[in-house]
Write a structure and sequence with these properties.
heterodimer, A: 175 residues, mainly alpha, 70% helix, globular, B: 269 residues, 4-stranded antiparallel sheet, two-stranded antiparallel ribbon, 8 helices, 6 strands
């Protein structure tokens, strides 16, 4: 791993980077829905960890990442009130295949289904899917460790229900 | 013995029960077919949820080296050109394209309150193809337009890509005229597409915009330039947004794009 001439990366942070980077990108992706942006934000989160040198880097990173993604979304929301005039683009690039469209719409459905969860349930689910343990999730979310299993069971069920309902065009009332 | 509740079943299946607790569950399952059945249902649920989440994951790439020493601001990553470029020369809505930015540039002003007409704007680049995505079209009077666009559908929902391509093709501009095109007295009505997929980045200089696009950015003739922004969109190597106030309550953004068709294939999973 390349080191700066000025100061070496602390070994423990380098290790955290190696083991956690992909998980952080995955976590961020479910918030900003842009692979490149997720990578950018993940890099920035690690850069900040270098500066702050937090004790529990892994947990700290996910909290920082969540905040950064939220700020990202706020900035995008502020821009909603402008009119936009589009200039044209080259059209030769865009013959999307049926398969690509299918994948895209599946992704969109999952995204919509995720929106159907309560923010807390969604956060717990995404953190678990990013590889955090119940203990880590409890620390990050402030929930009791004993409540994580219940939260996950509810979140998973809701996700699958919402996805299936979305697929068939029905709307499921929130229970 | 009481049955195992859902939360406990999930913790059990996730391997997150303390050994003593897990043994307790084992013991109960050994003598409770009902709970054994539920265990399998929950196991399938967990698997299904995992599948769905995997659908909404970024493409797996190699972990890039930790650029600890030379930490770049995230914006710089957007500048990296990954594929050979194809440059577009068509204009969607003709607005007297002869006027270049270089001619009409004015000092930047303080940002004003946003306009009343608010097209819904997706937050991310990969806009989902959901029918319920809100779109609105607004009519804006733009003084200085020298060419009348055809009447745009006022209440028809967003056209799909092939239709838009046709709409764009109909707008194909003649080779750009020379700079000194005087604004005409006649005001033309322009229909704007409220939907877009760009994610705005930091403000940049006009020179940077020129470099990025390989040409002068296009703007509304006669309107001052408030700011120029770098932006990003899937499938384009460069996107520049020129922000111009049209009046005290209306701001227009002219989106200039430079396409990179091959990059699109690299991103779509």
């Amino acid at each position: 791993m390349p080191h700066s001439a000025l100061s070496p990366v602390p070994q423990d942070l380098a290790e955290v980077y190696r083991t956690t980077y992909r998980a952080l990108v995955r976590f961020l992706y479910r918030k900003v829905w842009d692979a490149e942006r997720a990578e950018d934000l993940a890099q920035e989160a690690f850069a900040r960890a270098l500066v702050h040198k937090p004790d529990n880097a892994r947990g700290w990173l996910f909290i920082v990442a969540a905040n950064m993604a939220r700020d990202d979304a706020r900035r995008a929301a502020r821009e909603r009130r402008h009119l936009t005039l589009l200039t044209a683009e080259a059209q030769e690039s865009n013959s999307a295949t049926d398969e690509a469209l299918e994948v895209e719409s599946d992704r969109a459905r999952v995204r919509a289904a995720l929106e159907d969860l309560s923010p807390r349930d969604r956060e717990v689910l995404l953190l678990w899917d990013s590889g955090l343990s119940y203990d880590e999730i409890a620390t990050q979310t402030g929930l009791a460790r004993g409540a994580i299993g219940t939260t996950l069971s509810r979140a998973r069920r809701r996700l699958v229900q919402a996805y299936e309902a979305g697929k068939s065009g029905k709307h499921v009332a929130r229970g | 013995m009481s049955h195992v509740d859902d939360g406990m079943l999930h913790a059990y299946l996730d391997g997150e029960l303390a050994p003593a607790e897990a043994q307790g569950v084992d013991a109960h399952l050994a003598q409770c077919p009902g709970c054994r059945e539920r265990l399998e249902e929950e196991r399938a649920l967990i698997a299904r949820a995992g599948e769905l989440l995997a659908l909404a994951a970024p493409p797996d790439r190699e972990v890039p080296p930790f650029r600890a020493g030379d930490v770049k601001p995230p914006a710089r990553l957007w500048w990296q050109v990954r594929q050979p470029l194809a440059w577009a020369a068509t204009i969607v809505l003709a607005l007297g394209i002869g006027t270049y930015l270089g001619r009409g540039f004015e000092a930047l002003r303080e940002p004003e309150t946003a306009a009343d007409a608010e097209p819904a704007r997706p937050q991310a680049l990969e806009t989902p193809l959901t029918p319920e995505r809100a779109r609105r079209e607004s009519r804006v009077t733009v003084p200085g337009a020298t060419r009348k666009p055809p009447a745009a559908p006022a209440s028809v929902p967003a056209p799909a890509t092939p239709e838009r391509a046709e709409y764009i093709a109909r707008q194909r501009a003649a080779p750009v005229a020379a700079r000194a095109e005087a604004p005409s007295a006649q005001a033309d009505s322009v229909s704007l597409d409220g939907e877009h997929d760009v994610l705005r980045g930091p403000p940049i200089s006009v020179d940077s915009a020129r470099l990025l696009l390989g040409r002068d950015p296009l703007a509304v003739p006669g309107a001052p330039i408030r700011a120029v922004y770098r932006a990003r969109q899937l499938g384009y190597s460069a996107v520049v947004i020129v922000e111009q106030p049209l009046d005290s309550s209306t701001v227009i953004e002219v989106v200039n794009k430079r396409a990179s068709p091959l990059a699109l294939n690299a991103v779509v999973v």
